[in-house]
Amino acid sequence: MFQVRIIVRGYELDSLGHLNQAVYLQYAEHARWEILRAAKLTQESLLKEGIAPVVLETTIKYRRELRAGDEVDVSCEFRWGDGRTFGMHQEIRKADGTLSAELDGVGGLIDLNTRKLVADPRERWKAITPEPATLGL
């Protein structure tokens, strides 16, 4: 499973000294862009194709708190199905393996010209990704 390591920074904390809830979403977004980069895709290459990934829905389940200095691994796994959308499962785990949060989402690929979701995102990803296995394709 793909993952990226992040160190929790002090300025990301809330008034109680825990990682601010909005930062969990930023960590997840970072991991999603990193998996695309690992598959040899860039924002520029996607724009040249006239498409962009979009997040349509995200659910976060908080399991254990995170504090400044904690090292976390943020995973990213695409879950392919039929239709215009695909699933994304992500976990944020402390370096010792403790599960801190689970994020499940629904994403799509938007055609930047029509401003509509691509009909078959799985096939479109396959067609443009230099290393499709990285995305589970």
TrEMBL record:
One of its GO terms (molecular function) is fatty acyl-CoA hydrolase activity. Gene3D superfamilies: Hotdog Thioesterase. The keyword Hydrolase applies. Coiled coil: none annotated. Signal peptide: none annotated. The keyword Acetylation does not apply. It holds the Pfam family 4HBT_2. Keywords: Hydrolase. InterPro entries: 4-hydroxybenzoyl-CoA_TE (IPR050563), HotDog_dom_sf (IPR029069). Transmembrane segments: none annotated. This is Acyl-CoA thioester hydrolase. It comes from Asanoa ferruginea.
